[in-house]
Each structure stands twice: as structure tokens, then as C-alpha cells.
Amino acid sequence: MEQRFPARLWAALGGDPALPARVRHVPRGGPAGVLPARLPVRELARSTVAVCSLAAAELAARRAGTAVPAVRVDDGAVATAFTSERHLRIDGRPAGTFAPLSRFWRTDGGWLRTHANYPHHRARLLAALGVPDRGDDGALAAAVAGELAGRRAEDVEELVHAAGGLAVAVRTPGQWAAHPQGAAVAGLPLVGRERLDDAPPLPLPPLPDGPRVLDLTRVIAGPVATRTLALLGADVLRIDAPGLPESADAHADTGFGKRSALLDLASRSGRRTFEDLLSAAHVVVTGYRPGALDRFGLAAEALAERRPGLVVAELNAWGGAGVGPWGGRRGFDSLVQAASGIAVAEAAGAAGADEVEGGNPPGVLPAQALDHGTGYLLAAAVLRALTDQRGDGGTRHVRAALARTAHWLLHEAAPSGPPPHAPGAYAPETYDPGPWLTETGSPLGRLRHAVSPVEYEGGPTGWAHPPGRPGADEPAWRR
């Protein structure tokens, strides 16, 4: 692996500049490599996994009082993990992916991307467009297409947002750079890192156990981060609201090593239980819309007051509250790809092109790479914060945003070689994912799933247990 990629990311995490030399790269897929794309997706993928693995190795060594072990980054494992939701089988059944109304739509003079995987987002999209929900998604798609054909994408973007739904106009990289949100995101660090106070470090459980982690995240990026922490020995307890269940298929992919409980933070009993959990936690990870959890006392500063020495990790789509006009909005990987110019770059002949050639539909990355890459970055930031705390304490606040990862992909992660294929259709994958897939029995059924790409000498080789049923566990720590 060219050391400049993990070294650059490692520096963003505040790591020892000598340690990236411990990373060894195993290429796969022949000349085209894995995750073929016009943008440097494979560099993003292998580099985020590399720094996450290195941060895990560093913390393990610091806790054990030994030298930092060697890290191995295998392109096959990385590519398989970055497409884990596609490889997942539940008793032989593939997992659900995008709903029929989550797609690109042609508009008057442009394109629009919508996200309607969750029932409430689907309902808000239809309500904003004035399309009655008659339950037949095929007929609804035709009605939505007809409604959008005569509207400007930018107008629909604001209309749907005002209704609480999710839709963004497809922009070129140049248009996004000129947009106030694109400019605001470009000014952010790739990983936000802040020390909030001088609290002493919280003692971790004896090895091989890891920190106690409260997981308040959903969908892919946040759950990937906490799934990785669970692999490394953390006691991860995922908390969901009773009225906002997660997709069972998504949980089957990202719930490995975790437990899952339901807790109503709006109730007195739920808040008491949460405060009991917080009093023994080492890490809190949040991934909801910025500000959505503040009323429950879950802003970083409020958490630091009640649990000094905590690591608070925050994930968001567009940069976070106060960062540009969209900083507090909801968002998903597919929407960030569309708004930031990635979709145009992947459809056009070269990264950074200013139009979609021939009026063709926008393109997509070969994986939900913003989600997965940001997830591994956030896990790395948590691990590095825990390591730094052992030296000089302090409550730590770390942040990552899908849109900032998108900016890195578009403008900072130059490819390590020539493009994997000429403009046109994607080159086919030239590696067999089989060696990085395994089967595990679980309460959800027999799962075929990707193994973790996070690997270092002497490190864990798998999760302690498979995912259980969402919300089926008690809201209590194991130890």
C-alpha cells in the first residue's frame, strides 16, 4: 500500500507518524483491483480500514504494554466488507436494499435522488408531491415520475425537505463546491477531534474485555463503527426507540457482537435506565439527525458534565449543526453521493466532469463507500481517543460526516495508479469474495455474511456472537 494514504488519514486522527509503516497491503483483483470506479474508491476503502486496524492495534498494545503489532489490509476482505449488505443471506434470502421509491428521477432540466426506505420517509415524500398512497409501488413510481418531470429538482429538494422527507438535486462537483453547504463542508477537518475538559481517564475493564459502548446509531455508517468496536471486545449495547424499529435485515448485517435493547428516552423510567447505563459507559456513539437527541441530554457537552472522561462520537450526513444551511438535515449515503457531485463524476467520462454525458442517468459508487468508509473512520477516531486518554485523560469528542468523506474522495484521495478502466461501463469485479464470506447460525436464521477486514497480528478473528433479534435484549451491561 502506498503509505501516503493511511499516513494522511492517520495524521488526521492525531496518530504517531511512525506507525503507518506497520501496515502491509495485500492487493487483489488483478490490474483493475477491487471496487472498480472512476473515483478512487478502493483507496478510500483500504485506507479507512488501515487506520482503523492500526488504531485497534495501537490501543491493544498500549493496554498490554507491548509493541504495536503489524497490521494487514487485504483488498479482498475490504471489498467484501464494503459491500456486506449485498452479500448477506438470511436462510438463503438476500437482504432488502433500496425501496422502489428510493432512486434517481428525471426532472425538468435535471435529476433528483430520493430516499424512501423507511415508511415515514416514504409517506412524507408522497405527501410533499401530492401523490396519494394507494399501496402499489409500481403505480406510485409512475405517478411520482410524472409529477417530477415538470418540476425543477432544486424546487422539489426544498419542498420535500420542508415536509420532513428526503430528496436532493443531483449536482456536479463544481456546483456542489459553489453551494454554501459544499463550501462549509470543505472547510471541516476530515475527522473532528476535541478535548472537552481535563477529566481523568475512565478505567477500562481488564483485558480481553473492551470499553462499554452505548450505540445510538442507525442504518450503515454508525452501526459499522460500533460493529467494529464489538469485534475488538467492546460491550456494545444498541439503543432504539420503541416506535422507531430498525430494519431487521440491516440489523442482521451490522448487529454482530452487539446486543440490542428498546428504551423510551421520553419516559421517566427510560431516562433513569439510560442514566444508569451512562454512569458505567466509556463511549457513546450517536448517528441521528444533528440535534435530534439534544432534548434527552445527549449533546456532547451535556454528556461530559454527567460522565467526565467519556468518549463521545457523533456521525452525521452533512457536517453537523451550525455547518452551512444543511448541517442539521437528515441524509444518507445515496443522497450525499447525488448532491456532492459523485453521481455525476461516476456517470461522466472522468472525475470532476461538469455534466452527465448524453443525458444518461447519474452513476453510483460500486459500494455505499461513504457509509462504510466513514464508519471505519469513526471507529478509528474512538480507538485513538481511548489511547490518547490513557496518556492525559480528558473527555473526548470526535465527529465524522458523510459529506466530508465525499469531499475527501472527490478532491483529496488521488488514485494510486491509472483508472481501472476506460470511461463507459464499470469493469467487472475480478476477485472472488468467497474467502471472505462465512456462515453463522443466529436467532434471525442462518446468516451468510462478510468477515471483518480489521486485522492485526494477535487480534480477534471474529465476533463473540451473531446478531440477535432487534430490541430483544435487556438494557443492562454484561459486566
- Overall spatial form: globular
How much β-strand is present in the residues? 5-15%
Query: What Rg is obtained from the alpha carbons, in whole angstroms?
Result: 21 Å
Terminal Cα span: 40 Å
Q: Tell me about the biggest sheet? A: 7 strands, mixed
Give the low-pLDDT segments: 416-427
Average pLDDT score: 91
Q: How many beta-strand runs?
A: 16
Give, in spatial order, the strands making up the sheet with the most strands: 8-14-13-12-9-10-11
Work out the helix count.
17
> What structural class do helix, strand and pairing data support?
alpha/beta
Q: Helix proportion of residues, in percent?
A: 25-40%
What's a concise summary of this model?
The chain has 479 residues and is of the alpha/beta class. The protein contains 17 helices and 16 strands.
